[in-house]
What we know:
Elements: H1 7-10, E1 57-61, H2 77-82, E2 87-89, E3 95-97, E4 100-105, E5 111-116, H3 130-139, H4 162-166, E6 176-180, E7 183-187, H5 195-198, H6 208-211, H7 216-219, E8 239-245, E9 249-254, E10 267-271, H8 276-284, E11 290-293, H9 295-301, E12 307-322, H10 332-341, H11 344-350, E13 356-358, H12 380-392, E14 401-406, H13 411-426, E15 430-435, H14 441-447, E16 452-458, H15 467-470, H16 490-504, H17 509-526, E17 530-543, E18 546-547, H18 551-558, E19 571-572
Parallel strand pairs: 1-10, 14-15, 14-16
Antiparallel strand pairs: 2-3, 4-5, 5-7, 6-7, 8-9, 9-10, 11-17, 12-16, 12-17, 13-17, 18-19
Amino acid sequence: MSSHKYVAFLLVLALIVVACTPAPVEPAADQPAETMAEAPAESASTGDDVCPARGGTLVLDFSSRALVVPIWGWGYEQQKLVFGKLIRTGTDNVPHPDLAESWEISDDATEFTFHLRQGVKWHDGEDFTADDVAFTWTWHNDLDSPWVNPAQPGNWIALKGSLDYLDGKTDEIEGIRVIDDHTVRLTLAEPDVSYFSRFIGSINILPEHIYSQWRVPDLKDSGNPLWFTTETQIGTGPFKFVDGKKDEYFRLARNDDYWEGSPCLDGILFQNMGPPDTQFIALQKGELDVMKVEGNFYQQAKDLPDIDVQTQRLNYISIFVGNLSQPAFWDKRVRMAISHAINRQEIGDAVYFGLREPWHTFSFVDGWTNDEVPTYSYDPEMAMSLLAEAAADGVWDAEKEHELIYYHSGTEAKNFMLLMQKYLSEVGINVKVIHVPNEAWNDRVAENKHSFSHAGWGNPVDLHGYYRTYRCDNPPNQRDVIWPTDGSLDAVCAQIDALFVEAKETGDTDQRKALYDEIQQIIAENVIGYIPLHRYHMGYAISKNVGGMDTYALGGMHDYQWSKLNAHLWYKMEE
Length: 575
């Protein structure tokens, strides 16, 4: 993604920097880790001065992204409104205080000390304390948890002593220390600057006095009816759970004791409005206040008199994949030719009405993207020349038919695939397009008969999240093989692997950015695995009587990682 001007202070996420505060002055990049800046609350109270209107219920759709499970490591709107995190990450990719009002990161990136906000109450009136934070991290260290794999330490079991705890050698995790009621320290087994932004910013803190009655396996099923009971939905967020029914609705009421102040709205109702066409009818009738719109709905919404349309760039890209287990793609010239054959701009304009931005690197984290990587502009003549060279050397068979599989559904996806088939055929690549339903995707990929696939790709706000994909010793557990099986890129893989490890342990912002720039450059030069196509933009149709829906709200309503919704500031005017 294009590099915004956040780099100077962005590595509050990952630096030797101090406590991140919402103060208007940017923190100095060389501020020592052992000091701690004062962290005033981000807002004092949502009185009439910040609420143009009070009361009313905002109606949002519940038919998609309707996952209310607060124990997963990523978040949907419902979770973000009910539960709190230590920090919240906004669309600026900077951590903002939430239940932790300040923090320090040690110079060696192994210790994270959090100073918790005082006076915070759980929705049932119990006090929030450091014990709840310690409980959350301990509770998730469970061998029956779907996120715990002792063979791959990281995330939940990255803490010092986690493996001993899982083995039953200890009753506590050494890396979790409650210092006092409002101070907690997490210590990692090895340095990992990225742990802060990748993980700490995505975890909902759970109430010990409620969740201590369960183990992770009791609740890991997203269809568990317990998720629609008050018992599991006790949080610290701006809205309280009232009632709900799976696949139908989820009702929230404002939390007058919320630490940022009582929300402007009386409540929020997530109502299942069905597929996009019926959602759009509900939007026009005033029964739905905010709708995510793409394609024709994006265009039509612009003409509605009572609707404002905004767009938000997302942490999500589309990728085109040459299956590198197939010898046909072991030659770099073939991979370069494929990238040159695709007219990214035409696809974005003709199929997606401008809501897809041409993209050329695997990173989409603002402030961390290398804008100097090779771009492989649309050049069918170059593509044909490269394929001809490869064919002359006997490494490309121009007569072979190649399967292109994809799982997205709908008219847009079909039109996109028809264009891809056209682009590839125009440079001499014979392609058969096959749609594979989501539920059959893994089995179809496992058959390994395809040459190409198309998919979407999203990841956390720190680039170390990509290490799992590109590391040399990682088996191909993604959609396709990343590294050619002929060994032609073994040296390149080893170089990238070493750079990822070095970046994980580097606290200096500029040095870390340089390492990730180098990784992106190498991957782009060699056209490794995934060919980036577009960064996604989402359209939002918002009723004109609704306000307070800033960029944090819109980004956080769609993206897994962004969680700074500012929902206490949303309001609805009387009609």
